[in-house]
Amino acid sequence: MIDPSLGLPTITMAVPMPGFPAHREFVLVRLNDDGLLYAFTSIQDPELRFLVAPPEPFFPDYAPEIENEVFSALNTRDADRLLLLTVITAGVEETTANLLAPIVVDRDTMRAMQVVLSGSGYPVRAIMHRAY
Amino acid sequence: MLVLTRRAGESVMIGNDVIITVLEARGDVIRLGIQAPRDVQVHREEVFRELQAANREAASPTEDAVRAVTEMLQTPEE
């Protein structure tokens, strides 16, 4: 049987993504050489994938505060090992990034969740511009 | 829908491990405290619905859309 993860490390959702309760395991497939764009791909159904990107190059002022509950859900020991990914909605007219609810991945425990930054005022659809 | 009457300080249990406590009622604003296991996410309904819609919209983009985003994010050749 072919391993759909292609040998990439499996990321387990501590809490499923809203709208996709059945999908618990994902892999992060790199889509470009710069490491700016990834496909967060369901292992159960590789047809399901989300475009994700590290937000820093696009939103330099974006500095969300991650609450302790997230650390405990991800079994985080070292906060520096957390990777923040913003979910991108690719459209013909415009492409937006969900800054309200980034996916947070702990690179040690390989657990992840989509964290809602309640009260932060960050938008669900922030328009993305070129990285340069 | 099950309807219960509770006073401030009283709680409702859902299953074995979700406890919802009425903290304060002032006019039409009710403050609730919610205790739930860490794998149970608690959201305001409208926030959850918006997120669900945004996720569904973002899910499984077409190859063309992926290509467009890839091109947009491409760093120009030095």
From TrEMBL, chain B:
Keywords: Bacterial flagellum biogenesis, Cytoplasm, Repressor, RNA-binding, Translation regulation
Superkingdom of this protein's organism: Bacteria
Location relative to the cell: Cytoplasm
InterPro entries per record: CsrA, CsrA_sf
Gene3D superfamilies: Translational regulator CsrA
The keyword Repressor is annotated on this UniProt entry: yes
Major localization listed first in the record, in broad terms: cytoplasm
Function: A translational regulator that binds mRNA to regulate translation initiation and/or mRNA stability. Usually binds in the 5'-UTR at or near the Shine-Dalgarno sequence preventing ribosome-binding, thus repressing translation. Its main target seems to be the major flagellin gene, while its function is anatagonized by FliW.
Family stated for the protein in its record: Belongs to the CsrA/RsmA family.
Subunit structure: Homodimer; the beta-strands of each monomer intercalate to form a hydrophobic core, while the alpha-helices form wings that extend away from the core.
Protein name: Translational regulator CsrA
Organism: Paractinoplanes globisporus
